[in-house]
Design a protein that fits this description.
The chain is an alpha/beta fold. It is built from 30 helices and 26 strands. The strands form 7 sheets. It has a 7-stranded parallel beta sheet, with helices on both faces. Strands 14-19-18-15-17-16 form a 6-stranded parallel beta sheet, covered by helices on one side. The protein is globular and about 80 Å long. It binds adenosine-5'-triphosphate and magnesium ion (MG). Belongs to the helicase family. UvrD subfamily.
């Protein structure tokens, strides 16, 4: 049976009960008259927590599962728990692991810990993402499974380059076999711990076979380059622990207390890793909210929470019900929206925060007007002293939606930042410089060498053909092209059959690499960076350019150098790998600048875990939220609703939801309908006169009847028959090919003009019958 502690019903005013009921012997509390108060020293850590949160913080031994809604203090509990473990003397800082969803969240935890315990202790706690945890393990012990400590971490662009290379090798057309789709398949295979030969034997179609063959090559390439992708970081760590129990034992012994935030979005490999690490001491605390699970497309698996209770049947389950973040109106809206989902466990969520302004719906003609309305409201809020720019976030479903808002912000000269556009580390000049540094750290990284040769002056006189010969020659010698160059310099190898001038050029290049590698041992990273940029001609190319875009690239390189300076206390040979690791693991959200006074624009997915006093959620339309892709499956539709829920619950005080009657998508102007999610908002929390149903530009006519306004609280689904012309908010115009009656519903097959044939459920599809 599960042992439940805390205030499961979440009644306000009962805060002291669960703590006073069961004071731990020798624990952190002492009686002071009638009241139970923390022992001195612990006050700063436990103060500002309610009773249930206190239980979550002080139940340090054994497995603990905290399942709770948004804004209920899960992340706060996690931080205070780490502080409590150290402050109470139960653990030393380096015995604690806190896994967060982003590096930024880890930084925040470290900062808050610094405030509670002092920076020195805080720095020693292993706080970071799963990926950074795995890098740490693999750098130290990866050699046991054939991974050199200097391994490179490939990003998505590198991965795509490898898949394309594999397709080319196999004589297959990348137009026909989408590299991105193949990469998705490979990622799923890795997450399921399937090898290329597993994939081969499971193949059920030609496409599957291609995927298996690409996977095989891809894995070989990675091995040859001594590189790993993001999935590998997890997969190879799990493999390492499975094959070498002594290595696992080392980490189990070192990391005695594990905590994981945003547990609902962990994938199977992450789950396995957690289980492995915790299987000895079992001091594992995971916190999450199944209603906020929004990453199933990245293999996040909600089963992880359910199986936690199966694997740890004695787990203490703590539920937090009180929301500290938002106004009652926002909490009520969120609660009403998520209630509609069927696949969920009912949980109370309430707040004692004072009421705020009602939620506002903004009905707009198109995205330009939407952007104008949003931006003029931002302007008004700031002018009237109701908010600062930094308090405001604009959230959207897809990145493309940011453009119109950006333009409107620029027109009004309002400062803003967009999270997740082209990331700093994905910019061309930055990737060129990183490729250079990667080759120096890991000469086996042939993909980066290839980039260096094609993008910098180092490649002068070395054409694609020479490079190919170099690679083939390297393969015969079982070493990388960069190794080959190094061998050439040492004259330990006969040069391949190339023109004498080419061999001379290759020797020169090898000499450059040898010198730069030697400099790595003597100079700090930033000096080596200067040297590498000068020698490779990158500096001259950008610094001396007259074109402003090129000059901007130079400024980016200067900025990169300033990041490198942080590693300057040690020689580059030690500092560079750490820097490259940071550069590889940085995610879009980590680059967010929260200190300046600017409006933040970001996707709903990136907004997870964050909060803002004012939130504008734009494009709440059928086809966008829920996204068109999700309209055909109930499970995906539920995930879209969870995404909407995450968006709503980011707001602390003011929430605006906007939608348009028409929108430019894929270069064409399309009609839009307000999202049916809006129908679930309780009328009393939405500003009067702004209900979606009162502004619906077009509605579905009842069967056989005439089009006319229909109350959105009772949507009427038209009866459809074959041959009718219909309009779908996401797929546009089409005609009904077939209708199949289905238990009170209709399964409709529609031939869309631009999106091919789709089979949809009439009750979900919101089809409009054209007269
Ligand atoms: N006991 C408390 N007293 C006052 N403020 C609190 C308390 N607990 C949490 N908060 C505040 O409430 C807000 C939400 O907390 P937190 O971010 O930890 O919630 P969460 O459950 O992690 O939310 P999410 O599910 O969105 O990640 C934060 O601003 C936090 O400081
Ligand atoms: Mg959180």
């Amino acid at each position: 049976m599960l042992e439940e502690r805390g205030n499961a019903r979440g009644e306000p005013g009962s805060e002291d009960r669960s703590v006073t009921g069961e004071p731990e012997r020798g624990g952190p509390f002492q009686m002071a008259g009638e009241r139970l108060v923390p022992f001195s020293g612990m006050e700063r850590i436990l103060i500002g927590l309610d009773a249930d949160q206190c239980v979550a913080v002080t139940t340090t031994e054994g497995p603990v599962l905290v399942v709770a809604g948004p804004g209920s203090g899960k992340t706060r509990v996690l931080t205070h728990r780490v502080a409590y473990l150290i402050g109470s003397g139960r653990a030393r800082p380096w015995q604690i692991v806190a896994v967060t969803f982003t590096n930024k969240a880890a930084r925040e935890i470290r900062e808050r810990l610094g405030g509670l315990l002092g920076t020195e202790s805080a720095q020693l706690v292993q706080a970071g993402t799963f990926h950074s945890l795995c890098v740490r393990i693999l750098r130290r012990d990866g050699y046991r499974i054939g991974l050199e400590p200097a391994f490179t971490i490939y990003d998505e662009e590198d991965q795509l380059a490898l898949v394309k290379q594999a397709l080319r090798d196999l004589g297959l057309d990348p137009q026909r076999f989408s590299p991105r789709m193949l990469l998705g398949r490979l990622s799923r295979a890795k997450n399921d711990q399937h090898s290329p030969s597993d994939l081969q034997s499971m193949a059920q179609s030609y496409w599957d076979e291609v995927a298996a063959r690409v996977y095989e090559r891809y894995a070989q390439y990675l091995q040859r380059a001594q590189a790993v992708d993001f999935d590998d970081l997890l997969l190879r760590t799990v493999e390492l622990f499975t094959e070498y129990p002594d290595v696992l034992a080392h980490y189990q012994d070192r990391w005695r207390y594990l905590q994981v935030d945003e547990y609902q979005d962990t994938n199977r490999l992450q789950y396995q890793l957690v289980r492995q690490l915790a299987s000895g001491h079992r001091n594992l605390c995971v916190v999450g909210d199944p209603d906020q699970s929004i990453y199933s497309w990245r293999q996040a698996d909600i089963r992880n929470i359910l199986e936690f209770q199966r694997d740890f049947p004695d787990a203490t389950v703590i539920r937090l019900g009180r929301n500290y973040r938002s106004t009652p109106q926002i909490v009520a809206a969120a609660d009403a929206v998520i209630r509609v989902n069927r696949q969920r466990i009912e949980r109370p969520l309430w707040t004692e925060n004072p009421p705020g302004p009602p939620i506002r719906l903004l009905a707009c003609w198109d995205e330009q007007q939407e952007a104008e309305m949003v931006v003029s409201e931002i302007d008004r809020l700031v002018r009237t002293g109701n908010a600062r720019y930094r308090d405001i976030a604009v959230l959207y479903r897809i990145n493309a939606q940011s453009r119109s808002v950006e333009e409107a912000l620029v027109r009004r000269q309002i400062p803003y930042q967009v999270i997740g556009g082209v990331r700093f580390y994905e910019r061309k000049e930055i990737k060129d410089a990183l490729a250079l540094l990667r080759v120096l750290v890991n000469p086996r990284d042939w993909l980066s060498l290839r980039r260096v040769l094609s993008e910098t002056a180092f490649g002068r006189g070395i054409g694609e053909k020479t490079l190919l010969q170099l690679e083939q020659w390297g393969q015969r010698q079982q070493c990388s092209p960069a190794d080959v160059l190094l061998l050439l310099v040492e004259e330990r190898e006969e040069a391949p059959a190339l023109a004498a001038a080419t061999v001379r050029r290759l020797r020169e290049l090898g000499g450059e690499l040898v010198r730069l590698r030697a400099a790595m041992v003597e100079h700090p990273a930033s000096q080596l960076f200067d040297l590498a940029l000068e020698r490779s001609g990158l500096a001259a190319r950008y610094r001396d350019a007259s074109d402003p875009t090129e000059r901007e690239r130079w400024e980016n390189l200067v900025q990169l150098r300033s990041v490198l300076e942080r590693y300057d206390t040690v020689p580059a040979a030690e500092g560079l790998p750490l820097f490259l690791e940071e550069a590889a693991l940085v995610a879009a959200i980590d680059e967010a600048e929260m200190s300046g006074d600017q409006v933040t624009l970001l996707t709903l997915h990136a907004a997870k875990g964050l909060e803002f006093p004012v939130v504008f959620l734009i494009g709440v339309e059928e086809g966008l939220l829920p996204h068109a892709r999700a309209l055909e499956s109930e499970a995906e539709l539920e995930e879209e609703r969870r995404l909407f829920y995450v968006g709503i619950t980011r707001a602390k005080e003011r929430l605006y939801l906007s939608y348009c009657s028409s929108r430019n998508r894929f270069g064409l102007r399309e009609r839009c309908l307000p999202s049916h999610f809006l129908d679930d908002l309780p009328p009393d929390v939405v500003e009067a006169g702004s209900r979606a149903s009162e502004r619906v530009p077009r509605v579905a006519p009842p069967a056989g009847g005439h089009a006319g306004p229909v109350e959105s609280s009772a949507p009427v689904v038209p009866r459809l028959r074959a041959g009718q012309r219909v309009f779908h908010p996401a797929f546009g115009d089409g005609f009904v090919v077939a209708v199949r009656e289905q238990a009170g519903d209709q399964e409709v097959t529609v031939q869309f003009k631009r999106h091919g044939t789709k089979t949809l459920l009439a009750s979900l599809a919101k089809l409009v019958v054209e007269e």
